Amino acid sequence: MRENIFLRLLVLLLLSGAAQAELRLDPGFGSGGSLVVAASGSRDDRPLLAGLADGRFVVANMAVADVPTVRVARYLADGRLDSGFGNHGVSQVVVAAEHWDTSLVASLKVRSDGGLWLAVTRKSFLGSPPAYSHTLVRLGPDGNPVPGFNGGAALPLPALGSPDNGPLEEMLLQDDAVLLLASIYTAPPQGRFKALRIRADGTPDPGFGVAGLLIAERAGAFSYSWMSVPGGGFQALYTIFNPPELPRQSFWRRYRGDGSLDLTFGSAGEQAVAPGAGRYVANLFALPGGHHLGQGLGCHLFLFDSQGQLLREFESCPGRELIAAQPLGDKLLLVGQDFFGGTPPPGSPLSLRLVDGSGNPVPGFSGEVEGGLPGLYDDRFAAITDRAGRILIGHADNDAIRLYRYQEVGAVASSAVPVPALGAAGLILLLLGLLLPVRRRLRPG
């Protein structure tokens, strides 16, 4: 009887060990799980990825061409080009007549009908501060330019507050329009952001700001992020950099659909992100249902609802900087990237963490992948998940844009052979369990 109880305890110990299943490349995707999607001119050409509800996905990057050209390709779930999009799966749109020092796809958004909005930024280092130029592209669900948008051509955007214009940092979909956002920080601390609302036909929205442009200032503000709120408005997240002896604190500032400050929100249009000093949030990542995840100082993460109200906060360290937060079933995949100056250590800077709704690591998910995570420290990365629970990672090196897809976590956990984390006590029990049957056979009588 004692022997049976002992063996049961041993089985429970083995089953309760932290099984660390390694993510494996999906053999049904591309060539053995990876795919080269385009040539790349430099590691700065970070691909942007967007998933569709049916498992197809879109990849956008700057093409290697004589003039600045954005390349957009749509793929079937197995990695084949979707022939129903553009020219045999690829659409290319010229966005300017000449190159500047740097050109990149700043934002990619998918409409509910499968159409696309893309914003392209060019940067020139001649002069100080650097000059920026932005171009907006709209494609229909078939991958072709929409004739009703600027006559079917790419739309050069006015400088967002030249001469102190900045990089385009966010593009929000709002019904049949887009809101383009950039921020500038000057000394003494004086935060300023610009919002430009462009309608579906490519014209500035005359009912927003002044002829479609809003310039907002807030003394001491820095590190802007933005989110749409129900009803057509939006709110800006900013941080006040108090004197060194006081902690930083983040606030929401809400604007109506016409760009005016919503004075009914909080106190005269402003509200602390979370009660208490030192509540500091740097970046926002959009999640389904209007929720957003914010990254605070160190390993602190904040989950907000569609109104920006704090739902919960938790500790998790996905990497030095969070570059993606994606739902994976009922869990949340956090993709971090470490950025190093000087000579970086070898290997990929990416890290993958899977957490539950309270931020607790999911047992059995180690974040390790077959063959190691792709890329080097000076590559640029993107990552998304799909409804089937698969992870797609894209990165650019000096030669090409490459994609890697990993099998859904559930399938990996069931097909991989887990290695229980027993520890010293577990090993002792395991040895005793093996010796008990031997001792019984050797017992006299």
TrEMBL record:
InterPro entries attached to this UniProt entry: Delta_60_rpt
Alphabetic keyword roster: Membrane, Signal, Transmembrane, Transmembrane helix
Transmembrane segments: 417-438
Pfam families recorded: DUF5122
Signal sequence range: 1-21
UniProt entry tagged with the keyword Membrane: yes
Protein's recorded name: Uncharacterized protein
